[in-house]
Structures are given as C-alpha cells and as structure tokens.
Amino acid sequence: MRVDKWLSAVNVVKRRTIATDMLKSGVVFVNGMKAKASKDLKVGDKVTIEYLKGPKSYEVLQIPATKTIPKSQKEEFVRSVE
Predict the structure, then answer these.
(1) Can you tell which superkingdom this protein's organism belongs to (predicted)?
(2) Backbone phi, then psi, for 37, in 5-degree steps?
C-alpha cells in the first residue's frame, strides 16, 4: 500500500491530501529515508513524521485491505514507537 494511502487509512492523518502534502514537503521518512507518496509500505516498516514539536514514529503492523479502518482497530495496524 502507498504511504499516503496508509497514513490516512490507519488514521495517522485525517485526509489523504494532508498526507500527500506532508510527503511533498519532505517531512515523512520510511526506514530513515525521505519518502515519496508512491512508496510501497510493508509490514515492519518504520514511518517517521517530522512535526514542528518533534518527530513521531510509527511501525507498520498490518496493511489494511479496505480504504479506512475504524479508529477502535488502529492498534492492530500501527504502533507508536518512541
């Protein structure tokens, strides 16, 4: 699944357009490398977003089969890494 789709599908960001803008701005990294929107994610990848308040990292646990998942199931697909 593409990085921009994954970020919105697992409720890390609210909309895919926001995810795309973040990727264009160069604040999203996958496994330590700057990511493009078309980058495919795999289980085990580490996604880091450089916010103004500091970086926030996530680990991909599963790839969702649907466009979005319920917020109650977020823990099954993504884990925050400190």
Answers:
(1) Bacteria
(2) -60, -30
